[in-house]
Amino acid sequence: MNRFSFNQATAKHWPMPDLVAGCVAAGVRNVGLWREETAAHGLARTTDLVRGAGLTVTSLCRGGFFTTPDRYDDNRRAIDEAATLGAPVLVLVSGGLPDGSRDLAGARRQVGDAIGELVPHALAAGVRLAIEPLHPMFCSDRCVVSTLGQALDLAAPYPAAAVGVVVDTYHLWWDDQVWDQIDRAGRDDRLACFQVADWITPLPAGVLLGRGLPGAGCVDLRRFRSAVDAAGYTGPIEVEVFHEQLWTRPGRDILDAAIAGYRDHVADGSGP
Amino acid sequence: MNRFSFNQATAKHWPMPDLVAGCVAAGVRNVGLWREETAAHGLARTTDLVRGAGLTVTSLCRGGFFTTPDRYDDNRRAIDEAATLGAPVLVLVSGGLPDGSRDLAGARRQVGDAIGELVPHALAAGVRLAIEPLHPMFCSDRCVVSTLGQALDLAAPYPAAAVGVVVDTYHLWWDDQVWDQIDRAGRDDRLACFQVADWITPLPAGVLLGRGLPGAGCVDLRRFRSAVDAAGYTGPIEVEVFHEQLWTRPGRDILDAAIAGYRDHVADGSGP
User: Fold this and answer.
1) Are A104 and A139 in contact (CB under 8 A)?
2) Which of A207, A235, B220, B265 could form a disulfide with B215 if both were Cys (CB 3.0 to 4.6 A apart)?
3) Keywords for this entry (chains A, B) (predicted)?
C-alpha cells in the first residue's frame, strides 16, 4: 500500500479525525486533502493531526478557477496551505469560460498566463502546481483545459519543478492521444499527480457526482497505471471518487471499497 | 434560407404533416428526418408528403450502433430508407463499448470494420454514410468516436463518395484540434453534414437532452460556419437541438426560434 493514497473527497462526509484514524487503522499511509475540509477543521490542527498519525499528504485540492477576481491572492493562499500541510502538489482546476464569452482559445491562453503569475510563489514555497485537464463535459463551467496535451502545452513555458500536470483517469480515458501525452509528460518530467476513478453511466444531473470506484466502470485503469509507470512516475496513486450515493456510506466502508478497487484494478501484479 | 435545414428532432413532438406544412409556411426548404418518426408516419407517405411540398431531405438520422446483433441488416435498411427519401446522407452514431468491455481502441477499430461492410450497399444506393463524432461524455454508451480526427481516420480507408463525416458543433466545440481537422475533412472531401446546436449548462441527468438553440450558449458557431465554408463545404446547415423543455413548445415556435438563432449566430453577413 506504499503508493495508495485516499483522497478525502471520496468520503466527503467523513470527519477529519475519523478519516485520519481510519486510514491509520487500514494501513493507509497517504491522503489527498481538500481546502474546504482542511479549513473547516483548521489548517494547523489538520497539519498536526496528519503528522501525528504519520500520514503523508500527497496533494491539496484545489487551486485554479482563474476567472475569479481574487484569483492571485486565493491561489497564493492555497500554495501556502499546501506548504503548511507538507503537500508537494496543489491541484489546479483552471475554471471555465468567462461569463458571456465564446473565446475558448483566449480563455486557455489566460489560464497559462495566470499560472505564470503564480510560479515564483510556488517555487519559493516548494509546492508544485499541477494543471488538471478535466473531461470536456466540464469545459464551459469548470475547466477549459480538456486534454493532457493542452495541460502540457500550458505547463511548457515554466520550470518542471513549478508546474506539472495531473493524470486523472476519469477525465482522460476517452482520449486516444492520452498515451502519447503520458509519454511526453514523463519525458518532460511533468507528472505531478495520478488520480484514479472509473467511468459509469448514466451521468447524474450536473454531471459532477457520477464517478465510479475503481472497477465499477469501463476504464482500463491498469493500462493507465502501466503507462504512468512506464513514463517514470513513481509517486502516489490517489483514489478520488465523487458520488452522492457512495457518500452516504460510512467512511470506513468507503475506504475499504477504495482499497479493494485499487488492489483489483490498479495495483500491479507484484503487489500494490 | 437556401442552406438552412430544420432537423425534426428539434421539434420532436411536431407531427410530420404539421412539420412539413410549417416549414413550407416559414420558407424553409430543407429538413433532416429521423427513422423512428419516418417509420411512424410511414416511409412511402413521408416521401410523398415531403416531395409534394417541395422539401429536400438533407439527412436521415440514424444508422450505426454497431454493437447490436442485427447491425448489418438494420443499417442496410437505414440506407434504403435514406435512398427512398432522397436523403443523400445517413448519419451514423456508432455505438458505445460492448457490455463489460474496457477495450476502447478495439471498439473503435470494430466501428471502422463495420462501416467497411456497409460501403458496397451505400455506394449502390447512392447514400453517403456520415460518421458522427459525439461528445466524449457519450463515449461509453453511445459513440466511441469522440473527435473529428478519429472519424476521419475511420473514414480514410473507404471512398469519399461512400463515407464522410458529420461536423456537429455541440459535440466538437471543446476540441482545439477541430479546426485543423475541418481543414483536413475539406481536403479529403469528407464533409457530409454540418449540424449546429449550442452548449448550455447545467447538463440534465443522462446528458442527452441538454442542448441549446443557436446563440443560447457558449459555442462560437460562426467560427464553425466559417471553417466549414473555408474547407469547401457548400451543403445544408442543420439546426438540431434536443431539449426537453424546448420540446414542450408548439412546433412553429420552435422552428421560428431555430431560424432566428441561425440568422443571428450562424448565417454569414451576406445573408443566410
Assistant:
1) yes
2) B265
3) Isomerase
Whose CA is closest to A222, among A266, A180, A170? A266
Q: Domain residues of chain B, as ranges?
A: 4-265
Chain A residues 62-101 with a CB less than 8 Å from chain B: 97, 101
SS3 track for B108-176: HHHHHHHHHHHHHHHHHHCCEEEECCCCHHHCCCCECCCCHHHHHHHHCCCCCCCEEEEEEHHHHCCCC
DSSP string, B15-62: -HHHHHHHHHHHT--EEEEEHHHHHHH-HHHHHHHHHHTT-EEEEEEE
B203 touches chain A (CB under 8 A): yes
Produce one character per residue of B168-192: b if its CB has 16 or more CB atoms within 10 Å, e if not.
bbbbbbbbebbbebbebbbeeebbb
Mean of all residue pLDDT scores within chain B: 97
* C-beta separation of A47 from A25 below 8 A: no
Which parts of chain A sit beneath pLDDT 50? 271-272
Q: What is the predicted pLDDT for the residue at B85?
A: 98
Note the pLDDT of residue B271: 45
pLDDT in tens, B193-234: 999 999 999 999 999 999 999 999 999 999 999 999 999 999
Q: What is the pLDDT of residue B268?
A: 78
pLDDT digits (tens, 9 = 90+) for A219-233: 999 999 999 999 999
Q: Which of B108, B137, B219 sits opposite A135 (nearest CB)?
A: B137
Measured CA to CA, the distance from residue B43 to residue B70 in angstroms comes to 20
A245 touches chain B (CB under 8 A): no
| Chain B residues near residue A137 by CB distance under 8 angstroms | 135-137, 203, 207
Contact by Cβ (8 Å): A90, A60: yes
CATH number at B4-265: 3.20.20.150
For residue B269, the model assigns a pLDDT of 62
In this predicted model, what pLDDT tens digit does every residue of A151-207 receive, in sequence order?
Answer: 999 999 999 999 999 999 999 999 999 999 999 999 999 999 999 999 999 999 999
In SS3 terms, A110-154 reads as HHHHHHHHHHHHHHHHCCEEEECCCCHHHCCCCECCCCHHHHHHH
State pLDDT tens for residues B51-65: 999 999 999 999 999
Which residues from chain B sit within 8 angstroms of residue A207, using beta carbons?
137, 202-203, 207
Q: How far is A225 from chain B (nearest CA, A)?
A: 14
